[in-house]
Design goal:
mainly beta, disordered N terminus, six-stranded mixed sheet, binds calcium ion
Length: 198
């Protein structure tokens, strides 16, 4: 697959993205919103196959649309030593009138491959602007279909935190499709190492 970023709509309104990296961290969820958000230069573009991860600029409309080009990544990560932060580049402002009015009534997220089979996904991190209580969740896909199958929802919600206090929106440094782009950021996880006790 030359472009890992998948067309929106695979899960209804959910914009999906898929990145093939093996998750080797321990997931411990942030209990507070005391984030120290990364500065612009502390965001690290995510690479795959030596190229920054991109997403087509015309496969969705408005704030659902993740945008990028060969020098402006679609997806970034940052780690301040306490939390892991995520950033998506969106075509328009995602702020809006979703469940609590924080985000527009869409979903954005990333798909995670943990079994070295890029044809399906095992985990999803999702920002949910649709639900009454907007939230960020880690979900497990236990009944797998081919990647991109609209029926392949993630069956199990492993953990959820409120969206409120755990996200931010900033102007991006690009203007794809003729108007200002936006960064949608969220902090979700802490990262630890673990070793066998014996
Ligand atoms: Ca897109
Ligand atoms: Ca734009
Ligand atoms: Ca997989
Ligand atoms: Ca499924």
């Amino acid at each position: 697959m030359s472009d890992y970023c998948q067309k929106a709509g695979c899960l209804g309104n959910y914009q999906r993205k898929f990145f093939g990296f093996l998750v080797i961290v321990i997931f411990c969820f942030a209990a507070t919103s005391l984030f120290s958000w990364p500065t612009f230069f502390e965001w690290n573009p995510v690479y795959r196959g030596g190229l920054i991860v991109t997403d087509p600029n015309n496969n969705a409309s408005g704030a659902r649309n993740i945008v990028s080009d060969s020098t402006h990544a679609a997806f970034f990560l940052s780690n301040d030593g306490t939390y892991l932060y995520f950033r998506l580049r969106l075509d328009e402002d995602p702020a809006g009138s979703g469940g609590q009015g924080f985000l527009k009534p869409f979903g954005w997220g990333i798909l995670i491959d943990t079994n070295l089979n890029a044809g399906n996904y095992e985990w999803m991190i999702m920002l949910d602007g649709i639900s009454k209580n907007e939230n960020i969740s880690l979900r497990q896909n236990t009944i797998q279909q081919n990647l991109g199958d609209p029926s392949d929802v993630a069956e199990i919600t492993s953990s959820t935190i409120p969206l409120s206090g755990n996200f931010q929106i900033n102007l991006a440094d690009t203007s794809f499709n003729g108007d200002q782009d936006y960064f949608l950021d969220w902090g979700f996880l802490t990262v630890s190492c673990v070793q066998s006790p014996v």
